Amino acid sequence: MLKRIQKILNIGRFADCHAAGCEFAKETIVFGFNTQGKSTLTAIIRSIQTGNNNILIGRKTFGATSGKNVEIDFEEAGVNDRYIFKNRSWNKANPNILIFDSKFIAENVFDGENITFDQQKNLNKVIIGKKGQDFNDEIITLQKQSDDFANQKGEKTREFTRHFPNLDFAKFKAFSEDSKIDDKLKDKNKEIKFEQEKEDIKKAVKIHIQNVSAFRFPNRDTLAKTLDVKQEEIETHIKSHFSTDESAENFLSEGLDFLKEGPADGSPRTCVFCGQDLGVKAESLVAIYSAFFKGGYEQLQNEVNKAIDHFKGIKFEATLEKIAADLRAKDLDIGLGDEKMADLAELKKQFEKELDKKCDLNYVINFDTFDRLKTGLEKIKADLEELEQKKLNIPSPKTVSVLENEKHTLEITRKRYELAWIKFCDDLETNETEAEKVRNTRELKRKELDEYSSAIFDTHKGIINQLCKEMCADFEVEDFKPLKKIIGRDERIFGIKFFGTHKVSIDNENDETPNFRNTLSESDKRLLAFGFFVSLLAHDRDLDKKVVVFDDPMSSFDSERRRKTVHIITDIACRYKEASGTEKSILPKQKIILTHEDRFAKELARMMPSACTLKIEEYVDHRQKRSKIVHADFTQDFPDDDISHRIEKIKGILDTRTFTTAFEADCREVLEHIFKRKYYLELKTEISHRKSVRTFTTKLTQDRIGGFNDATKSQKFIRLCDDLNIELHDGTTTNSNGDKESILKEFFECLTLI
């Protein structure tokens, strides 16, 4: 507990306060008039409680040139523990302090005429206490984790959207893996390309059909013709009988034209050159020559040669290669590959070799390779025509847009099962799983907090309303319940009800209807705050570890409430039943009450006879008002009869000749009091105008009342007023000790006269 104040330097009114001899007790009452330093002392204690150095940093004493310094001793189990404020900070803090003051009211209950949501939130926090705050801290931690998971998910979602705009992640994740996805994509690209180039392909295929159709094979019948001529014998004869082969055939052909037909009688013909009879051998040779020159040999030879030349002149390879390359470029296939084209070229080559044998018109050609080649080329034409009819000349089943969408789906499917996106989906799934666990745990904690808070609020409500009843208040608290949303601003944890019937909203600001501002008096508002604080103490099972400070708890209270307030502060305790059923009562470690009400201080001292009584005194140093803490005797400082006390004090100064003590104000107060009581009706007007003894004397003299028409008596009072500077606003009289003694004797003579 707080044991003693060693020093307070340059904090507010305490410029140089050393109160080491003024020890605080378990119950300590500190009296001080307003503005003399009570709030500063409370601020020092609050700074220790919170560890907030700024509370004192801004309270520097006016005119001080040195730094702020505070040393306060706390005592724990007989061991001294010094708290030092130096170099703008405390060496330690003590959270086991509870303070009721205007700051508690402003932060937790109301501020001026309004109750804000922030105050409700603070009060909610205070009421649920450490256990509730532990719940709340866990919830906040869980909420932070939940927010972190949500932020991670949001970041992942934004990353996903950057890669896949307008795609739902759940749909992306649900895509099935496809081992043939690459082949399907390749086929889809072909489909798209085909649809995009369809018109151009139609034109190209039409041209290719025309080019293949342009291939004309020679008449097969022409090549199949033969002529049965013994050509070898002719060649042998020419070589045997002619010196040269040149012109031999012309000579022999012309000779046959001159040869007569054989005689009708069958006799042999004669040679046109020698006239000899043609024998059987010669006739045979003539028959051979006739067959050669007159059987159409030359014509047939020309036809065959022309057909052969035509066939050899067919150049289909280049055309087919162009068709194949064009179809391949357009991803079309009619089976026209390099192997097929090579086979066709080989067939042509083989048939050309067959044609070389036709130099002998008697040779019968084998048309197998010819037919196969022709069939192959016709097949290519048929395939091109089928492609044209069945694929190019029918409406497309799907538009390019549809095909593009299908391709996009295939691409996304392939992307889905890339390693990076597999991990991405796994990470998001893990995130959601962990986030769900955190959310579930958070909701369980919220439920626990709700149940605990509701129970706590119910018990607080009972104590607060009991206190309001004992304090003779016309209102009670209702709808006392914990905040649920915490982050909202439309909740209130309590309402007010007057006379058990009339509800008053605490957040209604319409002055045309009853509300907190226009229905509760200042006394009622402070009583409400006091009730909350007392209820907190009554439920604090660690109260025996706490220093409880009341700073002016009686401010603005009605006189009827003074007595009950004294009783409540005196009897503060936390009473509860243990699990065993044993009733337990816990008292505060220490109570410190600061007040400016003398009667309240005296009543507290009477109810707490063991209490230490101190007071804050004002003094002037270099024309600056300062304060110090000293011991106090409230029975002496605040006598029941103030006037008698003042007379005793003045008499003591005269008897002890301690003229350094000021007495002028006390003399004036005594004289004024007696004049007012004795001559109230005669001086009623002057009293209402706040006049004093000089005016009273003049009035009584003029009206010849109370013997003041006696010039000696009247003059005696006027002279005393001069000596006491009564109603002399520019009076500067300075009296010696001898003069002061004479004045005091004159004062008592005047008391006797009056």
Provide an overview of this structure:
Helix 6 runs antiparallel to helix 16 (400-416) and helix 17 (419-470) packs across helix 19 (522-538). The chain contains 28 helices and 16 strands. Among the domains are: 1-96 and 545-553 and 585-638, Rossmann fold, CATH 3.40.50; 228-295, no CATH class; 642-753, no CATH class. The strands form four sheets. The chain has a six-stranded mixed beta sheet, sandwiched between helices. The mean pLDDT is 83. By secondary structure, the chain is an alpha/beta fold.
Itemize the secondary structure elements and their pairings.
Layout: E1 2-11, E2 14-23, E3 27-31, H1 38-50, H2 54-57, E4 69-76, E5 79-86, E6 89-90, E7 97-100, H3 102-108, H4 117-163, H5 169-174, H6 181-196, H7 198-213, H8 220-224, H9 231-241, H10 248-258, H11 280-294, H12 297-312, H13 316-329, H14 338-356, H15 368-392, H16 400-416, H17 419-470, E8 475-478, E9 495-498, E10 502-504, H18 516-519, H19 522-538, E11 547-551, H20 559-570, E12 574-577, E13 583-586, E14 590-595, H21 598-607, E15 612-621, E16 624-631, H22 634-637, H23 642-656, H24 664-678, H25 684-688, H26 693-702, H27 711-723, H28 737-753
Parallel strand pairs: 3-14, 3-15, 7-11, 11-14
Antiparallel strand pairs: 1-2, 1-4, 4-5, 5-6, 8-9, 9-10, 12-13, 15-16
Helix pairs in contact: 4-17, 6-16, 7-13, 7-15, 13-14, 14-15, 17-19, 20-21, 23-24, 26-27, 27-28
